[in-house]
Design a protein that fits this description.
Helix content: 25-40%
Shape: globular
Radius of gyration: 18 Å
Number of helices: 7
CATH superfamily of the largest domain: Bira Bifunctional Protein, Domain 2
Largest sheet: 9 strands, mixed
Distance between the termini: 13 Å
């Protein structure tokens, strides 16, 4: 990245984080530091947010890096509808525009794009569909792996092209994860803009945890498909 691009990315990041903090300040939602945030999952804190660095051991490519910046936003005892309504407001504040995000179920995404309902097919039939689409892989009887393979190649790039899209009703285990050995985070919706997943709505205990990748939001703002181009000044 040349110096002018790096400076532009760094300045844009400063503005993005400023707008995020102003959004939460307007709702009287407190910012906490990274070390305190996990403690609040088991506490009675109603609403908090943090901006922090996280790392993940996964392949590095044009959308993935080992260390990345995230926004986490915790709300207690909110329904999915409450949270998605607030995510609407958050995105409008960040992108300074009025729009109506689309909502689409996981099943409908497959039906509209690939012409079949994944819930009606066996693993063998999913494997046949993948091969029909030109995807030759050895995934055995792992149903979820076949679904993810087709999703990543053919569905994800089409989501949220004209307006942000909330992908709902995700399969069990789609993004289940464990924290501290016993706290399960379950996906309720993934947020897509311009074919890129920028955020997720998860539940943990009695909390809803909204997570946005700040580097990916910067990719949208700076109109780039390569995450390395938004890392100036990080």
């Amino acid at each position: 990245m040349n110096s002018s691009c790096a400076l532009d990315a760094a300045n844009t990041r400063v503005v993005l984080e400023k707008n995020i903090r102003e959004f939460f300040s307007s709702r009287q939602i407190s910012e906490v530091k990274n070390a305190l945030f996990p403690l609040q999952i088991n506490a009675d804190q109603v609403s908090i947010f943090q901006i922090s660095k996280q790392s993940r051991n996964e392949a590095v490519d044009r959308r993935h890096i080992l260390e990345f910046s995230v926004l986490q936003w915790l709300q207690r005892d909110w329904s999915r509808e409450n949270v998605l309504s607030e995510v609407d407001a958050f995105l409008q504040a960040i992108f300074d525009g009025e729009f109506e995000p689309e909502r689409r179920s996981f099943r409908d995404a497959f039906i509209q794009r690939l012409g079949f309902d994944p819930d009606e097919l066996s693993v063998a039939e999913l494997r046949q569909e993948a091969r029909r689409l030109g995807l030759n892989a050895s995934l055995g009887e792992d149903r979820l792996a076949w679904l993810k393979l087709m999703f990543v190649h053919f569905i994800e790039p089409t989501l949220g092209i004209n307006e942000p899209l909330y992908l709902t009703d995700l399969p069990d285990q789609w993004r289940n994860s464990h924290h501290d050995g016993d706290v399960v985070a379950i996906s309720h919706a993934d947020v897509f803009i311009d074919g890129i997943k920028v955020g997720s709505v998860l539940s943990q205990h009695h909390h809803v945890n909204v997570v946005f990748g700040l580097d990916r939001l910067l990719m949208i703002i700076l109109e780039t498909r390569q995450i390395g181009k938004v890392l100036g000044g990080v």
